[in-house]
Structure formats: structure tokens, C-alpha cells
Write a structure and sequence with these properties.
3 strands, 78 residues, alpha+beta, GMP Synthetase, Chain A, domain 3, 26% strand, 3 helices, three-stranded mixed β-sheet
């Protein structure tokens, strides 16, 4: 999977104000900024992202995804 494909999958299921992806096609690190993360704990934010990938996480199409998930306010404050 390419970074563009992964970004498309995430942004189709989650309104992102910003997304950065780094990886080698199977192992990824993502910084994702979304207002949909407001009021959610980190695990709930990650679950929202995993939900956008569906079975791709289970079929090993995306072997590993580490994330930094932020609200727009958290992104601005960093």
C-alpha cells in the first residue's frame, strides 16, 4: 500500500484537517488532526482511525500503524 492509498482510506472515513504519513508500505506512522477527536480519549481516537481501515488491518495489508492523533486545538498548541 502506498502513502497516498492509506491517506485516501483514512480521509474517506474521517474528516481530517491535517494528515502526515511515513512508512515503508507495511509499517506506518501517522499524524492525524481531526475535529472528530474532540472529547475522545486516545484509545477512542485510534479506534476511529482503525475503523476507517476496516479489514485492511486484519488482512495484513497494513501490518502496523502507529499514530499521533490530535484535535485542531492540540495541533495549534504544539
Amino acid at each position: 500500500m502506498t502513502a497516498e492509498e492509506l491517506q485516501t482510506l483514512i480521509t474517506q472515513g474521517l474528516a481530517c484537517q491535517h494528515i502526515e504519513l511515513q512508512g515503508d508500505g507495511r509499517h506506518w506512522f501517522a499524524t492525524i488532526v481531526s475535529s472528530e477527536f474532540e472529547g475522545l480519549r486516545p484509545i477512542q481516537r485510534h479506534q476511529k482511525v482503525y475503523a476507517t481501515l476496516g479489514s485492511r488491518m486484519h488482512t495484513d495489508e497494513v501490518h502496523a500503524l502507529s499514530m499521533k492523533t490530535l484535535t485542531p486545538a492540540e495541533w495549534q498548541a504544539r
